C-alpha cells in the first residue's frame, strides 16, 4: 500500500511542476487524497488497488472520473435538471423592440430599436 501511495505521489510531483510548494501540486494531492479517503467511494479505491487505474495515471483524473458510478449519474441528473430549468422554449418568448428610451414595443409597431426576446410571463404581469 505504501508503494502504491509513493507511485501516486511521484506521478503527481513529476507532472504538476516538480515543486512541493506549487499550488497545482498541492491542489492535485489534496483532491486525490480526499477521493481515496472517501469511505463512500470504495469503487475508486478498489480500481486503484487492483490496477484497473494505474497509480501513475491517478494524477490525470478529474473529480468526475474519481466519482463512483452512482454519484456520477446523480451529478449528471442534477446538471440536466439545472439546464432544463434554464432553457426557455421559443413558445414562451415574444419578440419585442427595445426603444432608445428603454421601453418595449411590439415588433409590429416598427420601432427603431433592436429585437429582444421577452418572456410571456413578464408581459402578463405588466
Automatic annotation (TrEMBL):
Gene3D superfamilies: Transcription elongation factor S-II, central domain (1.10.472.30). GO terms for molecular function: zinc ion binding. The keyword Nucleotide-binding does not apply. Signal peptide: none annotated. Residues 1-94 form the TFIIS central domain. Keywords: Metal-binding, Nucleus, Zinc, Zinc-finger. GO terms for cellular component: nucleus. This is TFIIS central domain-containing protein. One of its GO terms (biological process) is DNA-templated transcription. The keyword Zinc-finger applies.
Amino acid at each position: 500500500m505504501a508503494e502504491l501511495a509513493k507511485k501516486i505521489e511521484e506521478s503527481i510531483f513529476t507532472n504538476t511542476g516538480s515543486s512541493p510548494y506549487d499550488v497545482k501540486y498541492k491542489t492535485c494531492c489534496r483532491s486525490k487524497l480526499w477521493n481515496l479517503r472517501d469511505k463512500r467511494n470504495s469503487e475508486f479505491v478498489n480500481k486503484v488497488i487492483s490496477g484497473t487505474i494505474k497509480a501513475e495515471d491517478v494524477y490525470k483524473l478529474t473529480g468526475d472520473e474519481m466519482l463512483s458510478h452512482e454519484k456520477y449519474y446523480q451529478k449528471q441528473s442534477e446538471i440536466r435538471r439545472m439546464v432544463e430549468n434554464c432553457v426557455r422554449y421559443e413558445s414562451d418568448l415574444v419578440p419585442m423592440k427595445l426603444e432608445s428610451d428603454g421601453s418595449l414595443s411590439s415588433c409590429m409597431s416598427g420601432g427603431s430599436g433592436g429585437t429582444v426576446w421577452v418572456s410571456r410571463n413578464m408581459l402578463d404581469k405588466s
